[in-house]
Amino acid sequence: MTIGTPKYRELGLTDSEYELIVEKLGREPNDVELAMFSLLWSEHCAYKHSRKLLAKLPTEGKRVVMGPGENAGAVDVGSGYAVAFKVESHNHPSAVEPFQGAATGVGGILRDVFAIGARPIAILDSLRFGELDSVRSRHLLDGAVRGIGHYGNSIGVATVGGEIYFEEPYEHNCLVNAMCIGFAKIEDMVRAAAAGPGNSIVLMGASTGRDGIGGASVLASAELGEGDDAKRPTVQIGDPFEESKVLECCLELLAKGLLVSLQDLGAAGLTSSAGEMASAGGVGIDIDVSEVPLREADMEPFEIMVSESQERMLAVVEPSRVDEVRAICEKWQTGSAVIGTVTESGQIRILRGGEVVGEMPVEALVDGCPLYDLDPVEPAGWIYGNRETLAAGASAEDKLLALLSAPSIASKRWAFEQYDSIVGSRTVRRPEQADAAVLQLPEAGNAIAVSIDGNGRRVACDPYGGTIDAVLECAQNLACVGAEPLGLTNCLNFGNPEKPTGAWQLDRAVSGLADACNALGVPVVGGNVSLYNEGPDGPIYPTPVVAMVGELPDPARVAGNAFVREGDAIGLIGPFEPNLAGSELAKHRGELDMGLPGADIAAVAAACEIVRDAIRAGKLSSAHDVSDGGLAVAIAECAIAGGIGCEVNVEHLRERGAQPEEALFGEGPGGFVVSGERSALEELGAVPLGEVGGETISIGAGDHSLAISLADAERAWRSLDLA
Amino acid sequence: MIWGVLQFPGSCDERDALHACELAGDGARLVWHESRDLDGVDGVVVPGGFSYGDYLRAGAIARFSPAMEAVAEAAAAGAPVIGICNGFQVLCEAGLLPGALLRNVELRFRCHQVELLEEGTGERLSIPAKHGEGRYYAPEQMLDEMDRNGQVAYRYADGHNSNGSLRDIAGVTNERGNVLGLMPHPEHAVDPLTGSTDGLRVFERMSQGAFAQGDGKAP
After folding, report:
1. pLDDT tens per residue across span A146-183
2. Structural Rg of chain B based on CA atoms
3. Which residue is closest to B32 within chain A, CA to CA?
4. Is B52 close to A423, i.e. CB distance below 8 A?
5. Are A573 and A631 contacting, i.e. CB atoms less than 8 angstroms apart?
6. What is the pTM of this model?
7. A535-569 tens-digit pLDDT
8. SS3 category, B156
9. How many interface pairs between A and B have CB atoms less than 8 angstroms apart?
10. Which of A166, A602, B63, B149 has its CB 3.0 to 4.6 Å from that of B94, i.e. a possible disulfide?
């Protein structure tokens, strides 16, 4: 912070934004008001560089129960039940302090889900770090994984899946995206809008301290650079025990019908919760900061209003029911205090005792931030680095082993065994047992599948096509367990949108997301945007993380990704056209460049339907989508998972224009490796590849034919276990 | 057999335990930690998860809860009591079981399916384990005595002792054999869809008094 800079600039507001605030208030804001405006007008809260783009996304669908704008999206899973889900980033806090950053990322997304009255039943996470040979990346990975485990394990919500990629552009700015799935009776769900002037505002949960002050504007809405250690006090500290009590307390209050509405306190604390509740309900709110239970006695009103202390919830309660609400909070040994009132004024008024210390129109504070158009310019070429790590003359065997042991492809058992994946008794497929996590819903008589995907490298090559590929991979993962997509959520992790390249990446990616969702008929029920993900070396790979929830009628019919039976036929289903552009092999060769071949979304959707129906009918022994590392890696993964070899030949792919090396390691959407009875595969129109059996993975590919022992393949794929 | 499942602030696996008890017995209900009254149940499960946050030491606070006083009385009267994971830690803290649970040798929480051997019968059970503090420890002399008394109920099969427990111990009983504590989670092995049904056997054997050491022994 520099002496002489106006305070509003230090808080991240531009000159013209400040002028607009003065105009809307009719005067200069005081310190309390300035602090509140600076947070709610930050990118993190106002989506001022992304909101216009996001309007392109399809949000309607007949199974949608709650869409964007609520704390979490929700879809109808039948029998009167809904599944709620949301993914959110905690990137910058995790880059500064990975353990607490990741832990509170999980805590925050859990609160979003139980705020709508859904019991959290599963967590997934999508993580990105720099290459593993960097000490910093290993530190961030270790801290983030321990933090996720600490919070999820302690609160008793199963962490059932996720993904981790390691790429140089995430070296300074790692990504930690956490997703929560909740389950609710539709009739018990609640919205966040405040209503009923005269009703009481009750703050529940932890007391309010100085932790996390200004996190939304300081950490989430600016690039990372030198001196980030000094930002450590802006990272919040998580207490999963407190959250567990608040969670049970809120669910009991909702089940008893004692709350008018409920909202979690996340970024920008009381300011955004109260502001959003008032805005959604078209009412005003008075808050008396002297009624807020504090950890430190001498906190200033602005600190109380912007504190990001964790494990707090805000409820609107009819005055006659306040005593009952507080008694239930006491039962759960969690705090509660009446801190304000719903009014008809349309103003957010902040009081300290009898004194008014801030007063702003809700409309100006919550919805008054200007929205900006982007100024996108396509870069002239590949803006990221290239690093050759694989010798030019490597044999086909060496290439396969190098890919299997590449940290982004290798087994993540080391990480996911640090997570409780089974609490709640719903987990039908644990991590790495199938392409999607499968959770049974005995109450509704069916099951859901969840997948979270987003290969930033492919998006960097082609933001439009790469984003489509991410959506298609999600859909394919669901198809592999027999699930039909119900809804999608996303977290858009991008660089600085005020720079031409960042703007172009964001603009093209959102277009791709919209086109893919429209073509598949999958509504977007929510999302989160994390911009300014840049370090001293430049922006991250543009990384739209997409997560899809699907439904399947019978969890007993779910196949896994493992070959299971000697003598089963192996086949390829789908319009897969292998290409080395943007592939893991191209990365290892240092040959990354712009451009991806386009995808035929309708053809991929048709293939998904074939696989889904075959799984549901119990016709397949295994199904696995072709993804990172191409067909050879997909086949090897099926073999390793099953502990059984195979003999296949991929030369048929020459008909699709693929040279032998491309057939082995080329990537692209639309491919499924399936195994089962020969007649079943023929009936499905699968291209025959070979047969399950033996102790060797043998793949015929012309002059690139290869054979490696199952043991060698497994050793490579387990490389992270030994590290 | 009607089972009561204790519920502490911050318990995680109590609903899973309740469900398992319903499958294995004739009924089950939750018992709130502040209750001194076990509501007429025949046996008690002290479930897994985290009690009171466990910030001091796993189980260190929970042992002082009113419900635990009632559990100690029920155990003294010979009722079956099962402590799972955190519940095992609570029972050790309360002095109802010998020994203690230390941080895993690798110092990391680990969740994975393990194979257990039932002492006496040699029955092999596949049950998940998930904990960061599951390394069973007791002084050598006490371990010898427990072995002599037949107080070791379950051991990890070869290659499955990932937490570093002494003598591969996964579960122990009191001298009388009516109180059992084990680190793996039998309540998460009651449904073929989620991996295994071997856990049902643990509840059934406890309700049959299979680990009981005959008559007249002091608890």
Report:
1. 999 999 999 999 999 999 999 999 999 999 999 999 99
2. 15
3. A331
4. no
5. no
6. 0.94
7. 898 999 999 999 999 999 999 999 999 999 999 99
8. strand
9. 84
10. B63
